[in-house]
């Protein structure tokens, strides 16, 4: 199905649906969580789409930045999104607050590369929460936006913490997460 965009595999018809679901050459969906955006396009068009359709997303330059999530006490499910640009690539930083059990909320923080799974293997990211006497750190390889935030959360490829931990590191309801991207 994706031969026109570069896929050269020839598969038996029974293997085709499984491959098409993960094919690197399938169109990319809008990676912005928490929106009902139906956009699809090529990898090269993702950043242009984000800059034009999701203008509220801030982009910071550099390998070390602070991702500031404001008003973490907002009720219900909330997504905070920011972009980080370094090493000639763009990374999407996501903090997602969800209710996991009745009344129990959890935060999920992850980094996605605006790129392929193969490109994502070339990077590592570190998320750090700092408090006066505490530090919480998570290090991992970013997922590709082809996989998305949902897959990162489902595979536990993210920093997970509860509301009490968020409050331990928050300052007046705002949570600063130090984000460092490095090459492998």
The ordered H/E elements are HEEHEEEEEHEEEHEHE
Architecture of the largest domain in CATH?
A: Sandwich
Q: Characterize the biggest β-sheet.
A: 6 strands, mixed
Please compute the radius of gyration using only Cα atoms: 17 Å
Structural class: alpha+beta
Number of H/I helices: 5
> How helix-rich are the residues, as a percent range?
10-25%
CATH superfamily of the largest domain: Apoptosis, Tumor Necrosis Factor Receptor Associated Protein 2, Chain A
Strand content: 35-45%
Distance N to C terminus: 33 Å
Remind me, CATH topology of the largest domain? Apoptosis, Tumor Necrosis Factor Receptor Associated Protein 2, Chain A
Q: What count of structural domains?
A: 2
Provide the low-confidence segments as ranges.
none
CATH C-level label of the largest domain: Mainly Beta
Report the mean per-residue pLDDT as an integer: 91
Verbal overview:
Residues 1-55 form the SIAH-type domain. Pathway: Protein modification; protein ubiquitination. InterPro entries: 7-in-absentia-prot_TRAF-dom (IPR018121), SINA-like_animal (IPR004162), TRAF-like (IPR008974), Znf_SIAH (IPR013010). This protein is an alpha+beta fold. It has two domains: 1-24, no CATH class; 54-181, Apoptosis, Tumor Necrosis Factor Receptor Associated Protein 2, Chain A (Sandwich), CATH 2.60.210.10. 20% of the residues lie in helices and 41% in strands. It is built from five helices and twelve strands. It has helices at residues 16-22, 43-53, 117-120, 148-154, 163-169, and strands at residues 28-29, 40-41, 58-61, 64-69, 78-86, 89-101, 104-113, 123-130, 135-140, 143-144, 159-162, 175-183. The strands form three sheets. Strands 3, 5, 6, 7, 10 and 11 form a six-stranded mixed sheet that branches. A four-stranded antiparallel sheet has the order 4-12-8-9. The protein has a two-stranded antiparallel ribbon with strand order 1-2. Strand 8 and strand 9 form a beta hairpin. The radius of gyration is 17 Å and the shape is globular. The mean pLDDT is 91.
């Amino acid at each position: 199905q994706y031969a026109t965009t570069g896929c050269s595999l020839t598969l038996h018809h029974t293997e085709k649906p499984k491959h098409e679901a993960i094919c690197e050459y399938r169109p990319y969906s809008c990676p912005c969580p928490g929106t009902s955006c139906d956009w699809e396009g090529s990898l090269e068009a993702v950043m242009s789409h984000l800059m034009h359709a999701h203008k509220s997303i801030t982009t910071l330059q550099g390998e070390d930045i602070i991702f500031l999530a404001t008003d973490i006490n907002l009720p219900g499910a909330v997504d905070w999104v920011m972009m980080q640009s370094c090493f000639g690539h763009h990374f999407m930083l996501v903090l997602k607050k969800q209710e996991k059990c009745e009344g129990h909320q959890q935060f999920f923080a992850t980094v996605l590369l605006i790129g392929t799974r193969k490109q994502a293997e070339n990077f590592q990211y570190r998320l750090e929460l700092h408090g006066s006497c505490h530090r919480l750190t998570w290090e991992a390889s970013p997922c590709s936006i082809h996989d998305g935030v949902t897959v990162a959360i489902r595979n536990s490829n993210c920093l997970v913490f509860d509301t009490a931990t968020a409050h331990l590191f928050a300052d007046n309801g705002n949570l600063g997460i130090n984000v460092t991207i490095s090459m492998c």
